[in-house]
Design brief:
By secondary structure, this protein is mainly beta. The protein has one helix at residues 22-28, and strands spanning 5-9, 12-16, 36-40, 43-44, 59-64.
Amino acid sequence: MLGPVQIKVNGDAHELSTPTTVRQLVEGRGLSVQKVAVELNRRLVRAEKYDTELKDADEVEIVTFVGGG
């Protein structure tokens, strides 16, 4: 990575100053990767691909699972 990377997370613009994976992004928000679904550029990311490094202009959607009863 040559400089800051601009991404969108749930529609909001974010700048990453260091290389960041999907897993790091999720965990950095205080979320458990076991309790979320992640889309990267409108494609569902499988858990085994959470170590994918984010690139400039990537769009990430993070959806949390909520239990209830």
